[in-house]
Amino acid sequence: MDIIHAFSPDNIRFIFEGFYMTLKVALISIILSFVVGCIVGTIRYTKLPVISPILGVLVELLRNLPLLLIIFFARFALPDIGIKLGVVNSAIVALTLFEGAMIAEIVRSGLSSVDKGQIEAARSSGLSYMQTLWHIVLPQGLRRMVPPLVSQFISLLKDTSLAVVISLGELMHHAKIVIGQSYSYTIPILLLVAILYFAVNYVLSLATRRLETKLV
């Protein structure tokens, strides 16, 4: 185990370049998947004719496919139908589709968990369906969605490592290159990678606990 050479300035800089890419791809994917998931989940909850069943099929399809397969599809299959994406965009599209389907189910379940009696009371008091959804259902549903949503975001951050198969220059990809210089770098570099992943995910967990406390 060669800690000194493993943590040379060049290697550390290279590792943090990969870490930056991991955070960049994760952040963009989190924002996009959250937007997609909220829209799709809300539409499924409202049970719109035709649209809701179609989205339900797509959500179940994506949720039950391996993320690795979706990444390969985005990178190598889409160009065959005229959609050419770079490595970074392929990873973002794949993660957004997969995680968006997961979040859509979280949103739908969160909205469905609101007591029907409250909805009926709101409607009987004169609120429209959309007003009831906005003022009664969403605020309560969001409180219940926070823990599973953050867990999904944490999973998304870790899932970026799967994009190494399409040579995305993220954290694990750069770690593999550094380790390839010498096997004596394996333990120090993997420990550094573990610490970086843990630090970000732990901060997200702490933020969730604070948010839950405020929402209670």
Automatic annotation (TrEMBL):
The keyword Transmembrane applies. Keywords: Cell membrane, Membrane, Transmembrane, Transmembrane helix, Transport. The keyword Transport applies. Gene3D superfamilies: MetI-like. It comes from the Bacteria. The chain crosses the membrane at residues 21-45, 51-74, 86-107, 185-204. Its main location: membrane. Residues 19-204 form the ABC transmembrane type-1 domain. It is a multi-pass membrane protein. InterPro entries: AA_ABC_transptr_permease_3TM, ArtM/GltK/GlnP/TcyL/YhdX-like, MetI-like, MetI-like_sf. It is found in: Cell membrane. Pfam families: BPD_transp_1 (PF00528). Belongs to the binding-protein-dependent transport system permease family. This is Amino acid ABC transporter permease.
